[in-house]
Amino acid sequence: MDPEAARTARESLDLAFHMSNILDTGLDRHTLSVLIALCDQGLNPEALAALVKEIPKEPQPPPTTQP
Amino acid sequence: MEVSDQQTIIDLVKELVLRLLPPHSNTKSNSNQSLKYAMRILSSRMTPSISIDDSAIAESIKRQLVNEGKSSDALNFADLFTKFSSKSGPGSIKNKWAVIYLLKVVSEDRRNEKKSDSRVSSGFFASTVNGGLPNLLIGDENGDLRKTLDYKSRGNGGGGVLLVSKILNVRESAISEYVNLVKEENEVFEGVLVRDVLYACQGIDGKYVKFDKVLDGYVLGESIKVTRATRIMVRKLCELGWLFRKVKGYISESMDQFPSKDVGTIGQAFCAALQDELSEYYKLLAVLEAQSINPIPLVSEKVHSGNYLSLRRLSVWFAEPMAKMRLMAVLVDSCKVLRGGEMAGAIHVHAQHGDPLVQEFMRRLLRRICSPLFEMVRSWVLEGELDDIFAEFFVLGQPVKAESLWREGYRLHDGMLPSFISQSLAQRILRTGKSINFLRVCCEDQGWADAALEAAAAVGTTTRRGGLGYGETDALEALVVEAAKRIDKHLIDVMYDRYKFKDHCLAIKRYLLLGQGDFVQYLMDNVGQELSEPANTISSFKLAGLLESSIRSSNAQYDDSDMLDRLRVKMMPHGTGDRGWDVFSLDYDSRVPLNTVFTESVMGRYLRIFNFLWKLRRVEHALIGVWKTMKPNRITSHFLTKQEGVVKLQFISTLRRCQVLWNEMNHFVTNLQYYIMFEVLEVSWADFVDEMEAAKDLDDLLAAHEKYLHSILEKSLLGERSQILSKALFALFDLILKFRTHADRLYEGVHELQRAAQPSLSSRGKTKSKTWVGRKALTQRAGELLQNMGNDLNAIAKEYSSSLEGFIAQLPLQQHVDLKFLLFRLDFTEFYSRLRLNK
Q: Which residues are in the Gamma tubulin complex component protein N-terminal domain (chain B) (predicted)?
């Protein structure tokens, strides 16, 4: 990438990181960058959000929590 | 380069998973498992469920931040977002919205995880407030969702399968959730309620909806558990039922009362029209009932047939019938106590409305209601028939004798006059029918039927029933005007031609009002002798005979015998002490139909005028009689010259005084006579003749005749305002008559003297001594006579002049302009005025 593009990308990432902090998403910069790349590829953001939510819980046993 | 793309994606996902996993977990198997899981998740949701609009998402995020009280954060975010969106060109993010959305969802998830609240409603609530779809969460909070999708959750492990199926039925699960909620809150199904409402709108109590007398309406029982919204809706729909009840109640009441109490034809027509409208309403209700059998679909089902009936749909259907029923109920209320034409008028007032629906409805209704009324008008105007059993028509008839048929037989009843028929039209209607009846009864004329047919043909309707209806008031008016015109003309023609009204009036004028001079003269001559007797000794037969002879001896004999036959002598009721002069009068006998004009009171007024004129004539006659005796050549100059000085002087002066007085009286009487005959009678007659020519119908004729009589009475000082004056006048007449007797006596005395003084041309021998009266005695007697007479004459003269003065003084005070002419004539040399001034 040429420096211009790199700069743009970096700034965009910075902005997105700030926004995500405001929204208190708990994502770090690197994860966010991966997510952004995936979004750009055209994946459904809802699915990605689901991923973000579910995967950290994965080691837990199959959900039995029934109110 | 799909493969490479895919590879890139896979790599990225792998990395993501790695990063997301908690650091101290068993990496290898977990990561594989996680990877598989991740792929599954990704494959399940290919397209996002909201539209691509990053600014909207940003807005919602901002709003949410503000709601949470973090307004500075919101500002910051806004700032960042603008900068973020402005980045473009190589290296920038292409799917900005996706990123923003991702952030949003992640933050929401985190937030929700932090919350311990797991109930359904808050889950719904939160997501709807956030402005996105109801984000039915793929989380453990959703207990109910779990319930319904429980069967799906069995199977191979992991929350994976469960999660997928949950994600699939998110929307539907929300809807079935709602359905359960509705079922919990409502005890009764909506379909049942709809059917109950339909029953209520026919006046029948349903299973749950009953008529409550206290509240005066159809209500859903208090004990039944339904939502408040449903209750209110049911109440509103049942207003139709209440209105229906009212209208039906009125109809059945009227129908019940029909035989006993008179509801009237118009009332019946009203009920019939209402029932027609109600049958239309029943048709609508039948269709709705058929539809209500179809089950009401739940919100989640797709409906292919639209023909089900819910409360909402019912309210839409009911909009128009509600308006109509309300209108009918208003009409019923306003017409509860009215009948006949009044009812039609009240309903007509309600028809003045701007809404075309209302106007159309009212027009239909009124057409039915007013048909009996219009029928009655038609038959009255064209045939003179009044078949009105229930007294609803605005023309009232009462049975009277033939002669008062015109004046009192029929009249208008304003109470029953509907408001769309004006007063003048009603008057014309009344007159037309009256004329037909009058012609039929009094004149025995059948020609009016032709006139009626002509009238109908001219207007374009027929004389048959049902020609006219409401809304055609113009046509009715045209018909009435035509009919009135023709029938009036016919009536006038009949009056003038067959019954010779004009000729009769003229005859009355000539005889009763002493127009025929020579006849009056002869009558006076013949009858005058008789009438000096006391009234109760006079026989009317004799007078009748004298009347006959005077007719024959004058020009009156050439008159129409029909008129002459009606002329007869009438003796008024008299007391003792009345002379014949006071009670004598002529009468004119008028039969039907002329006695509508010449009624009793009218003839009475003619009588008064006759009396006055008769008195005047009598006075005139008396004066002329005196004149005859006063002719100077009766007194021989021989006799006069033979007298001695004093007596002669006395003689001459007395005679002269007598003559002067006579002259005055004559002047007065002549002028008064002239005034009465010409200025009063002839002028009034000329006016009356003009008006008779111009009269269009009998009412006009009657009015003209009234005016004629009234003016005569006023001008000849017989009216109420001139009572003082007429008293003075009669006093003058009495004086004149007294003068006549005195003058007669004077001249008789003179002639006796003369005869006595005559040399006995006719004397025979034996009477010589008796008839020879000494000259001295003669002179003495003459002197005495003349003295007495002179005194009498003086007295009369004084009285006369004072009375006359009084009379003349009062004349200018009269209102009537014509009396000034009388004054002018009497006083044209201003002799009397100057006399008064000098006093």
A: 194-497
The answer to whether position B227 is within a domain reads yes
Contact A24 B94 (CB under 8 A): no
Residue found by looking up tokens 């003297």 in the block: B753
Which of A2, A35, A62 is opposite residue B102, by nearest beta carbon?
A: A35
| Domain ranges for chain A | 3-54
Q: For B20-72, what is each residue's pLDDT tens digit?
A: 776 655 566 667 777 777 778 777 766 666 666 778 888 888 888 888 877 88
Q: How many CB atoms lie within 10 A of CB A7?
A: 12
Residue B139 has pLDDT above 60, yes or no: no
CA–CA separation, A30 and A36 (whole Å): 10
B119 pLDDT above the threshold of 60: no
Residue A22 to residue B77, Cβ atoms within 8 A: yes
Q: Do A33 and B32 meet the contact criterion of CB atoms below 8 Å apart?
A: no
B623, B662 in Cβ contact below 8 A? yes
Cross-strand pairs, B579: B534
| C-alpha B139, offset from chain centre | 81
User: Is residue B551 in some structural domain?
Assistant: no
In this structure, of B300-304, B402-406, B629-633, B752-756, the range with the lowest mean pLDDT score is B300-304
Please state, in angstroms and rounded to a whole number, the distance separating the CA atoms of residues B793 and B814. Answer: 32
pLDDT at B769: 43
CB pairs under 8 A between A and B: 177
Q: Is B829 exposed, middle or buried (0-12, 13-18, 19+ CB in 10 A)?
A: exposed
pLDDT in tens, B461-479: 555 555 556 666 777 788 7
- Cα(B150)–Cα(B48) distance, integer angstroms: 25
Q: What's the rounded mean pLDDT across residues B564-573?
A: 78
Contacts of A25 in chain B (CB under 8 A): 103, 106-107, 110
| B808 belongs to a structural domain | yes
Last residue of a domain, one of B444, B476, B498: B498
Q: Indicate if B334 and B413 belong to the same structural domain.
A: no
Which of the listed ranges B12-21, B265-274, B439-448 does the model predict with the highest average pLDDT? Answer: B265-274
**Which of A18-32, B94-108, B213-227 is most confident?**
A18-32
**pTM of the shown model:** 0.61
* Structural domain count, chain B: 4
Given a cut of 50, whether residue A63 has pLDDT beyond it is no
Q: Which residue of A has its CA nearest to B17?
A: A55
B410 membership: H or E segment, kind and range: strand B410-412
Domain that holds residue B138: 3-182
Residues 6 or more apart whose CB falls under 8 angstroms from that of B83 comprise: A15
Strand partners, B585: B570
Is the CB of B87 less than 8 angstroms away from the CB of A11? yes
Q: Give the separation between CA B302 and CA B595, rounded to whole angstroms.
A: 91
Domain end residue (candidates: B182, B203, B220)? B182
Q: Estimate to the nearest angstrom the gap between the alpha carbon of B644 and the chain centroid.
A: 92
* pLDDT value at residue B149: 42
Same domain (yes/no): B418, B305: no
B101 touches chain A (CB under 8 A): yes
- The Cα–Cα gap between B533 and B535 comes to 6
- What is the ipTM, given to two decimal places? 0.83
The verdict on B285 and B401 lying in the same domain is no
Q: CATH number of the domain at B640, please.
A: 1.20.120
The answer to whether residues B284 and B215 belong to one domain is yes
Alpha carbon distance B344, B266 (integer Å): 8
Expressed in angstroms, the distance from the first to the final Cα of chain B is: 152
